[in-house]
What we know:
single chain; 249 residues; seven-stranded parallel β-sheet; 8 helices; globular; binds nicotinamide-adenine-dinucleotide
Amino acid sequence: xxxxxxxxxxxxxxxxxxxxxxxxxxxxxxxxxxxxxxxxxxxxxxxxxxxxxxxxxxxxxxxxxxxxxxxxxxxxxxxxxxxxxxxxxxxxxxxxxxxxxxxxxxxxxxxxxxxxxxxxxxxxxxxxxxxxxxxxxxxxxxxxxxxxxxxxxxxxxxxxxxxxxxxxxxxxxxxxxxxxxxxxxxxxxxxxxxxxxxxxxxxxxxxxxxxxxxxxxxxxxxxxxxxxxxxxxxxxxxxxxxxxxxxxx
Length: 249
Ligand SMILES: NC(=O)c1ccc[n+]([C@@H]2O[C@H](COP(=O)([O-])OP(=O)(O)OC[C@H]3O[C@@H](n4cnc5c(N)ncnc54)[C@H](O)[C@@H]3O)[C@@H](O)[C@H]2O)c1
């Protein structure tokens, strides 16, 4: 696909990796729709770049997702590239041996983490694929997963959600490929983002760098490069690109 002819639709574009993707890709795409639930942060990026189509939406609300995707497709720039980026990191052990009270993983936290990281990707892709097929458009669904999908101590819910994203990516590649819609995912390792720096202690980050052959956290532009590659390579389908500095080898 030719980048400059595509219209993007990105979720969680108001901060972190998503915000960088908006800044890095908006100039190369024909147009870009940005969805986020954070009204203030969304307003800021709309002011900085008035050409963007911004939509406020809590993606855990299926009806709101339906309305937002409909608005994007009824605009003068119907999207052809969906980037499922919105998500949240959650870390909690299955059994917290240090807790004097209930030691078991909170069920509320389990449901919330699955809702934000897995259900939102399903809702968005469901509405996007349906609208694409109705209009006979060709395009691609790119989901931002995580290397945690392979299992990570202290992240049952987040790991399960991201493994689900990888599984749906393969499923969609098989179901939708014949209709001209590809599906792929990108699994970053530890990236240098505000969420990483606030979720992890300095000591933990030092430990991660020491165990990464490249000896550093990842740069968000590396994720943007992978997004461009997936859009432009028409034979890339159903695979997850790991961008982790080699921490998993
Ligand atoms: N930062 C990393 O090191 C890292 C590593 C691997 C994977 N990831 C994945 O990359 C993606 C982005 O992570 P980030 O670090 O930039 O996070 P972030 O918290 O900085 O940004 C996430 C954005 O998603 C939005 N969002 C969250 N829930 C939403 C909802 N229900 N509806 C609408 N918007 C919602 C937030 O408002 C925010 O703007 C996530 O899917 C995350 O799991 C991040």
